[in-house]
Amino acid sequence: MKALQNSVILLLFLGLLAYTIFDKIKGKENTQINSQLRYESEIFNIELPSEFIFCGEKVPLKEPDISEKFDREIHENVFHYANTNLMLKRANRWFPKMEKVFESYGLPEDLKYLVIIESAFSNAVSPVGATGFWQIMETTGREFGLVINEEIDERYDPIKSTHVACKYFKQAYKKFGSWTLAAASYNLGITGIERRLRDQKVNSYYDLNLNSETARYVFKAMAFKEIFTNPDKYKFNLKDSQKYKIEDTKEIQITESIDNLVDFALGQGINYKLLVRHNPWIKGKTLTVDEPVILKIPVIVPASFDLQSELNTSSEIEDSISEEMIGH
User: Fold this and answer.
1) What secondary structure does DSSP assign to 217-259, as a single string?
2) Residue 42 contacts by C-beta under 8 Å, 6 or more apart in sequence?
3) Per-block average pLDDT, block size 10, for the chain (328 residues)?
4) Residue 148's beta-bridge partner residues?
5) Per residue, what are the HEC states of 58-127?
6) C-alpha pair distances (Å), 215 with each of 205, 218, 311
7) Please, are residues 261 and 216 in contact by the beta-carbon 8 Å criterion?
8) What is the pLDDT of residue 4?
9) What is d(CA 224, CA 186) in angstroms, rounded to the nearest whole number?
10) For the packed helices 190-200 and 158-176, what is the interaxial angle rounded to 10 degrees?
């Protein structure tokens, strides 16, 4: 009888213990869920700024369609969290360089946000052949002084292509007298914007009825400016250590043609991959030099790069090729 009582007491104790543990786990889960709900409610409860300036021009946010378009782009980029977070990381590497270029042309630096829309800081190539950070067509690149041939395509140079974009913006501003219209024309073209202004008898980007892409284009740039200027407000809390850094390079002037850029890179203490990373305008393994060319060489070489191993591999490949040629 006593053994039965002890068994009942043990079962009651185990049941109470299990309930206590379950209750604690459930309470922790509820706390986590409530925290997540609070976090999401803060994110979803986005308030537009009461006033907004883009390229020195006041955005008419009191007009319902304007505020709604702005609101849409902010929401899309806030909730496309991973992509926007990545843009913030990349911007830390590229924006300081680009801002200096914009300043040299006397342009509003807000125009820099268009590069995110164009290429997301990548040397992308569109289906129609627009290339590089600023998506420049071949004819446009040549028109604005870029070298484009079988060995070189300077549209892939982020800074040289920024100079082209700046020259375009100055030209567009001279035509329209509005940075907002100049920005929109980077998507639709100067002629395209000019025709629509004339046909619709208006003189402002905000009064134009445009195709969906161009209608959203400037608002996307505005949204990036708002998020990048106030990252904490939108829960983008990157540490400095998480942002991509500007990589130090030294410049060397090349006055003679290079028959083998792979060997040239090894001679500089780097490999071909690093050479192309810092000189993305290089298209192949040779470089014909008619007039001096500047190459950028990284100051710090990754610890994983073993120069002696690379040189040995290169030597072994050359010996193997020589043996094959003798054998034949």
Assistant:
1) HHHHHHHHHHHHHSTGGGT----GGGSPPPPPEEEEEE-S-BS
2) 235
3) 60 62 57 47 75 97 96 94 96 98 98 98 96 97 96 97 98 98 98 98 97 98 97 93 96 96 96 97 96 94 61 46 39
4) 153
5) ECCCCCHHHHHHHHHHHHHHHHCHHHHHHHHHHHHHHHHHHHHHHHHCCCCHHHHHHHHHHHCCCCCECC
6) 9, 7, 54
7) no
8) 57
9) 17
10) 30
For residues 254 and 275, what is the distance between their CA atoms, to the nearest angstrom?
14
Name the residue with tokens 């849409």.
Answer: 72
Query: Quick one: tokens of 189?
Result: 């073209």
Q: CA 260, CA 264: separation in Å to the nearest integer?
A: 6
Tokens representing 302?
A: 């990754």
First-last CA distance in the chain: 100
Handedness of CA 60, 223, 140, 192 (dihedral sign): negative
pLDDT value, residue 326: 39
Query: What is the three-class DSSP state of 296?
Result: strand
Res 316: pLDDT? 47
Dist CA 2 CA 7 (whole Å): 9
223-260 b/e (C-beta count within 10 Å ≥ 16 → b): bbbbbbeeeeebebeeeeeeeeeeeeeeeeeeeeebee
With CA atoms as reference, report the closest residue to 227 among 85, 115, 59: 85
Give the gyration radius of the chain's Cα atoms. 29
Which residue's structure tokens are 């040779």? 286
Amino acid at position 226, single letter: E
Kindly state the helix (H) or strand (E) to which residue 210 belongs, with its residue range. none
Task: Give domain limits for the chain.
Answer: 53-242, 249-327
Question: Is 86 exposed, middle or buried (CB count within 10 Å of its CB: 0-12, 13-18, 19+)?
Answer: middle
Answer whether 91's CB lies under 8 Å from 109's CB. Answer: no
Give the CATH fold of the 53-242 domain.
Lysozyme (1.10.530)
